[in-house]
Amino acid sequence: MALGLLVGLSCLTWGRGARAQACCAGGSALTPGRLAPHEAWLAGAQARAANVFASFDSNGHYATSPTGTSEVDLEQDVFGAVRFFKRAQAAVLVPIVETHRQTRANGAELGGGLGDVNLSARYDFALAGGSLVVPGIGVLAGLTLPTGTPPESATHPLATDATGTGAFQGNVGLALEQTYGAWLVNATVLVAKRAARTVQGVHSVLGTQTTALVAGGYTFSNAAALVLVGSFAIEGNGSIDGEEVAKSSRRILTTSVAGLYPLSDHLRLTGSLFINPPVPMLGRNLPATAGLTIGGVYAWF
Questions:
Q1: What distance in Å separates the CA atoms of residue 284 and residue 200, rounded to the nearest whole number?
Q2: Low-confidence ranges of the chain (pLDDT < 50)
Q3: How many CB atoms sit inside 10 A of residue 200's CB?
Q4: Is 107 exposed, middle or buried (0-12, 13-18, 19+ CB in 10 A)?
Q5: First-to-final CA distance of the chain
Q6: 291, 301 in Cβ contact below 8 A?
Q7: pLDDT number for residue 15
Q8: DSSP string computed for 132-192
Q9: Helices and strands (DSSP H and E) totals, the chain
Q10: Confidence (pLDDT) at 63
Q11: Which of 176, 179, 169, 56 is nearest to 125 (CA)?
Q12: Structure confidence at residue 30 (pLDDT)
């Protein structure tokens, strides 16, 4: 309740307090590294664990993992965000990635290291709840740096020490969100492009990736929040030495439920459960995973 009151005081009128509370708590549950309107900066950490239970082939057919094989992907992120100007914020995320992989031929193997560092920025032209007609409008931009170990540089037999893509990636996006009492609705579109790479004389470029995300959340009276999320990512065919590679496109649907619980005005816990539904044609050229994240965020006003 204290967090909800602080959020309400950050608004111009009491009548907008409930809508602002839903925006702040729901938005922070959806994106833990995002600053609420009344916050100046934050720091946090989260851990992620995912189990690969199946895969989709180039035709979208779904198949469970063969007997005697397994893969568990782990990640620990440290992140921070800072506000500059009134409606602009920037963030950095540093991941540590580990993979445990087992095959019938090579046995079990564990590897990991520093992943690809991500820089991002957001500018809100309008805030959710500020108007009953105009939704919150945010412009997003990001840059992922190839600080991880690319696949061709892996030294372990099962490449479990590969922790990055080996290429710069830039993305831009647009987020729309609105509050209705204690409810929050969000729709976001992101477009990402990776830089070309040359490995052992082979020049390759991955296709442009577009991700559409929709979310709906509810903020409780104690400022805890629960959000249901669905996202669908589509990547076009890649090319090698200037020639498009047929059936190399990728797509995946991810569904998740995310939550936030405030321990104090400054400290909040976050977490989520996620899965790539094992439905044919919803994925292509990607594994199907299920897992969870849990983290904590400390914010300063």
A1: 27
A2: 1-20
A3: 5
A4: exposed
A5: 17
A6: no
A7: 32
A8: SSSPEEEEEEEEE---S--GGG--STT-TT--S-SS-EEEEEEEEEEEETTEEEEEEEEEE
A9: 2, 18
A10: 93
A11: 176
A12: 67
In the chain, the domains with their CATH numbers are: 2-300 (2.40.160.40)
Q: Letter for the amino acid at 242?
A: G
Q: Identify the residue whose tokens are 């100046």.
A: 40
8 A C-beta contact, residue 219 and residue 29: no
What confidence score (pLDDT) does residue 27 get? 64
**Model confidence pLDDT, tens digit, residues 72-100:** 999 999 999 999 989 999 999 999 999 99
Please answer whether residues 95 and 75 qualify as being in contact, where contact means their C-beta atoms are separated by less than 8 angstroms: yes
The pLDDT score that the predictor gives to residue 203 is 93
CB 206 within 8 A of CB 225: no
The length of the chain in residues reads 301
The helix or strand, by DSSP H or E, that contains position 29, with its residue range, turns out to be helix 17-30
Which residues 6+ apart lie within 8 Å of 258 measured at CB? 29, 30, 217, 226, 227, 229, 270, 271, 272
Query: Which position has the token pair 């991002």?
Result: 120
Rounded to whole angstroms, how far apart are CA atoms 115 and 295? 18
pTM value is 0.87
The confidence score (pLDDT) of residue 10 equals 31
226: CB partners within 8 A, 6+ apart: 29, 217, 218, 220, 257, 258, 259
Strand partners, 96: 76, 114
pLDDT of residue 25: 65
Residue type, 91: A
> What was the pLDDT predicted at 130?
87
Residue 158's contacts (CB-CB under 8 Å, 6 or more residues apart) are 101, 103, 106, 109, 111
